[in-house]
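Appendix C: a fully annotated inverse folding record. The material below is reproduced so that readers can follow the format used throughout the book. The structure is listed first as tokens, followed by the designed sequence.
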């Protein structure tokens, strides 16, 4: 039986470790959620701002219904991007551990457990699918026959008649299936499939690998156009594919120079490239990007040629990025360059504000 006091002391000693275990479990759970969020790479979500391109250049920013759908598309692509990043990190665990910076990622460093990452990926897939379904079946934000528009002058909100809800003839036979709304689901699925194909096979095919990454940018822009929906300008495709190739080739070059002899250990395809080859490609793409954007400002129907005023800003942004690639050995993470380099960030902000002013303010 034993003394009651002795039994009480023994019970207290047993209770302390249990309390500490519960506290440690709670701390561990919070840290796992934090590292899961880091593994989702919120900074990369800046790439998804491209879904607003169709909204801006179609001059629909003041249409609350279109703006709401574009925001929904942005959220879907943020969820899908984070899902792909988790899948990519799970498949590249060993190679990431050989990289001088990627080895500090939550999964590669062991701070985030594999089971938590898998569960997180499943949750992201469910959320993205649910929101995509909502966007497919959701025709607008107000009742049938009405749409909310914001007016800059006389600075008020007004209800104006909208086109009746029905088949979208702009998309032919797909009109009966929701037109652009249905196409948004197709584009989102294509984005996931292309990323999976890239992760497990196409990233090992020379040149095809950079076109796959660039293709993901194009799909973002396309998704932003069809979700509203508005006609997709060929200039949107051309400028997006060239601009994204510029960023991807710069990233490949930075990886090759940074990793040097160990480049192929991290990314096998890098052994198929050389700095000289990438320099040639960057030169071609840079020239084509500047020419395509300049021709768009002169020949495109948007903005009545006033957008040519943004050409110097675009040139400055490109030249500044080339400076960072060749002189500062940066460019491996375009989204970090955008947020960290005040010159590029300033050029982007000024270019966006100028574009909005030229498209939405009458002179």
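Designed amino acids, in order:
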């Amino acid at each position: 039986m034993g003394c009651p006091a002795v039994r009480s002391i023994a019970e207290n000693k047993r209770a302390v470790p249990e309390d500490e275990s519960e506290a440690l479990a709670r701390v561990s759970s919070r840290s796992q959620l934090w590292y899961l969020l880091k593994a989702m790479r919120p900074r990369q979500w800046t790439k998804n701002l491209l879904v607003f391109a169709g909204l801006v250049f179609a001059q629909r920013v003041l249409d609350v219904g279109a703006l709401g759908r574009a925001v929904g598309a942005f959220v879907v692509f943020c969820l899908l991007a984070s899902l792909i990043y988790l899948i990519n990190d799970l498949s590249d665990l060993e190679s990431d551990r050989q990289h001088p910076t990627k080895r500090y990622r939550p999964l590669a460093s062991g701070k985030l457990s594999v089971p938590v990452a898998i569960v997180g990926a499943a949750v992201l897939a469910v959320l993205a699918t649910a929101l995509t379904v909502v966007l497919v079946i959701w025709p607008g934000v107000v009742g049938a026959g009405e749409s909310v528009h914001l007016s800059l002058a006389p600075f008020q909100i007004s209800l104006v008649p909208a086109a009746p809800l029905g088949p979208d003839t702009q998309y032919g036979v797909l009109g009966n299936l929701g037109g652009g709304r249905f196409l948004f689901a197709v584009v989102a699925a294509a984005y996931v499939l292309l990323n999976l194909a890239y992760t497990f096979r196409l990233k090992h095919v020379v040149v095809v690998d950079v076109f796959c990454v660039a293709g993901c940018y194009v799909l973002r822009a396309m998704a932003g156009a069809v979700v509203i929906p508005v006609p997709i300008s060929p200039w949107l495709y051309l400028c997006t594919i060239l601009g994204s190739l510029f960023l991807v080739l710069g990233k490949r070059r930075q990886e090759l120079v940074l990793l040097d002899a160990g480049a192929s250990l991290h990314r096998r395809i890098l052994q198929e490239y050389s700095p000289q080859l990438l320099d040639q490609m960057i030169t071609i793409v840079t020239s084509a990007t500047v020419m395509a954007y300049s021709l768009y400002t002169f020949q495109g129907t948007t903005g009545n040629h006033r957008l040519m005023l943004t050409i110097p800003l675009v040139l400055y942004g490109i030249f500044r990025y080339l400076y960072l690639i060749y002189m500062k050995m940066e460019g491996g993470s375009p989204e970090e360059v955008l947020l960290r380099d005040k010159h590029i960030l300033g050029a982007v902000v000024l270019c966006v504000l100028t574009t909005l002013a030229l498209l939405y303010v009458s002179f």
